[in-house]
């Protein structure tokens, strides 16, 4: 069971970390070009179908595939068959923690299904539905984590309590995004919390199941308990530096290798040099007609 519990923490943490890195690049690019971090609701009609599915459904399909693989892993990583209730008298529920992991991974899969349907079934993307689904998944995740630590040792309780703190803050940010969908501040905080959740889950897997030293952490050693919090603070600093590094690299890349950014900078110069801004408005209108299939509010753009 040790291998199963290790994978149940490390694999989701690795996925969430890379998802956070992806979000960091998206938000960094949006901040650099001074545009909304929410994309267009759909592509032009002449776009090929395969390319459309790749560009629009990538995030949703990634959630579906990852959630399905993790669900398969939880079900078949047990030495015995994963059952809900045993056949003894009186009957008892079996594998409570594994069933909680399974519930979390199923929620991830369903969240991906909602995103794929929102981006492809209706004509205009349902951003509020997508974000509501993600927020609901984190509400359930928080409830499961609170009960998850009831049978934990002191070390597990300390590790999971810090994880609960990150999930709680992330839940608040996702809830706030339902009303403030284009806020850069919320996007940055959410990205940072995703990075924190991912790296801390991976760290928790090594602390609880595969210590680097080869010796298990002691519940009765107060120094071990204190160093868990110290490591968490190190994760805060490292992930903050990671976010700054992604922004710096994105800024360098778009300044020297992105023609669209230089064109946008030229437009801003023309706008400031013009007293009425008419020429800048003409350029902007021409780009809007060439790039946008329809006008939509910031909250409705994908």
From TrEMBL:
The chain crosses the membrane at residues 12-32, 53-75, 128-147, 159-180, 192-213, 225-249. InterPro entries: DUF716. Pfam families: DUF716 (PF04819). It is found in: Membrane. Keywords: Membrane, Transmembrane, Transmembrane helix. GO terms for cellular component: membrane. It is a multi-pass membrane protein. It comes from the Eukaryota. Belongs to the TMEM45 family. This is Transmembrane epididymal protein 1B. It comes from Peromyscus maniculatus bairdii (Prairie deer mouse). The lineage of its organism: Eukaryota, Metazoa, Chordata, Craniata, Vertebrata.
């Amino acid at each position: 069971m040790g291998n199963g519990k290790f994978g149940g923490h490390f694999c989701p943490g690795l996925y969430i970390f890379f998802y956070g890195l992806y979000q960091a690049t998206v938000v960094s690019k949006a901040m650099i070009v001074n545009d909304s971090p929410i994309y267009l609701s759909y592509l032009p009609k002449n776009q090929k179908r395969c390319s459309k599915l790749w560009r629009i459904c990538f995030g949703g399909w990634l959630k579906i595939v990852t959630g399905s693989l993790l669900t398969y892993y939880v079900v078949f990583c047990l030495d015995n068959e994963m059952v809900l209730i045993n056949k003894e008298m009186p009957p008892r529920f079996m594998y409570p923690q594994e069933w909680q992991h399974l519930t979390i991974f199923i929620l991830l899969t369903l969240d991906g299904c909602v995103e794929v349907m929102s981006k492809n079934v209706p004509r205009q993307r349902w951003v509020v539905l997508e974000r509501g689904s993600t927020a609901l998944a984190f509400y359930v995740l928080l409830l499961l984590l609170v009960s998850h630590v009831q049978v934990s040792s002191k070390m597990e309780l300390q590790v999971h309590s810090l994880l609960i703190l990150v999930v709680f803050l992330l839940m608040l940010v996702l809830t706030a995004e339902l009303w403030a969908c284009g806020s850069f501040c919320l996007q940055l905080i959410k990205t940072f919390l995703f990075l924190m959740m991912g790296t801390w889950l991976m760290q928790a897997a090594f602390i609880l199941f595969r210590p680097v030293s080869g010796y298990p952490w002691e519940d009765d050693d107060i120094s071990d308990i204190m160093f868990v919090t110290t490591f968490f603070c190190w994760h805060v600093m490292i992930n903050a530096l990671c976010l700054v590094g992604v922004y710096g690299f994105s800024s360098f890349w778009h300044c020297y290798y992105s023609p669209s950014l230089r064109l946008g900078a030229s437009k801003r110069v023309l706008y400031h040099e013009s007293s009425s801004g008419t020429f800048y408005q003409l350029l902007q209108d021409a780009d809007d007609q060439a790039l946008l299939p329809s006008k939509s509010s910031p909250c409705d753009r994908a």
